[in-house]
Design brief:
single chain; 3 domains; 3-stranded mixed sheet
């Protein structure tokens, strides 16, 4: 509360003639008050007054506003708390240089983790991937949700990581267009290999199939068709059967790792949709393929 002001007031009749602060010299008081010699000190709160012949009366007063609250300082972007997932992923990623893999990175989205980077040679890639898997398995957050670790590590002057497209997909929303692009980029210049005349995925294709499974895990809010195609060798009936079995095998691999089975439709096309109708090894290699088509779920 503000202290009341003590004023020296000079009066003549009913009119307010002059005011001066108490303690001022006589010369500082209004001339009229000095002339009458009628000067007194009275306590006055802030406001407007008039003299009624006996005492001062408040004509109007203005409430003293409460002090405005101190504005909270703007939080610097650097001070914003990081999301929990980002915090532990970043913390884990920062351990990679000390482990000898300064080129390795980590992308996580839901149950999928992708180890990325550009390794100097194939041996360093394998060592880095193994170290990254072990670091994830030793991290408490790993057991709380991550079910698939995918190889997205490329090699200088060598192969690109099968999980590169998945890592890009993991950094945003899995729209239909982005999901289709991720499947297409993952399969570009690659094939899922099976044991001869069987519907058993070759061990050499497991990392590729893991990357495709990661895409499916992030995109299973959409419908995903797994289309298997054969070349023209063998009978139509046999090619239809083996292509359906191989498509089923890919579907089973994905569902065993958490993909919603209702999102996957395996289809065996046999030799009915060739890319190249020539009868040679190059044409057979093109026609023998697996395709993934993404659409809206009904």
């Amino acid at each position: 509360m503000r202290p009341e002001r003590l004023l020296a007031v000079g009066m003549a009749g009913a009119a307010l003639l002059g005011m001066a602060a108490c303690g001022s010299t006589k010369e500082e008081a209004p001339a009229e008050a000095a002339a009458t010699g009628s000067v007194q000190c009275v306590p006055l709160a802030e406001g407007q007054y008039y003299w009624d012949g006996i005492a001062f009366v408040v004509a109007s007063s203005r409430p003293v506003p409460a002090p405005a609250p101190e504005p909270e300082p703007d939080m610097d972007v650097a001070d914003q708390p990081e999301p929990v997932a980002t915090t532990w992923v970043t913390a884990l990623e920062r351990t990679f240089p000390d482990a000898g893999y300064p080129w390795m990175g980590l992308h996580v989205n839901g149950p999928v983790a992708v180890l990325t980077g550009l390794a100097p040679d194939p041996a360093a890639k394998e060592q880095g991937f193994a170290a990254g898997q072990a670091a994830l398995e030793d991290n408490p957050e790993y057991a709380s949700g991550i079910t698939l670790v995918v190889d997205g590590i490329s090699v200088e002057d060598g192969d690109r990581g099968v999980g590169e497209a998945l890592a890009q997909l993991a950094d945003g929303e899995p729209s239909l267009r982005r999901c289709q692009t991720a499947f297409d980029m993952t399969m570009q210049d690659r094939s899922i290999l099976f044991q001869s005349n069987l519907a058993i995925v070759s061990a050499t294709s497991h990392r590729l199939l893991d990357a495709l499974t990661g895409v499916a895990l992030l995109c299973d809010s959409h419908a995903i068709e797994i289309g298997a195609h054969t070349d023209s060798r063998g009978s139509n009936e046999y090619n239809e059967v083996i292509s359906q079995q191989r498509s089923d095998a890919v579907r089973d691999y994905m569902t065993e790792r958490g993909v919603d089975a209702a999102a996957l439709t395996p289809v065996g096309y046999g030799e009915s949709r060739p890319i190249d109708r020539a009868e040679n090894y190059d044409a057979w290699a093109k026609n023998r393929r697996m395709e993934f088509k993404v659409s809206e779920r009904q």
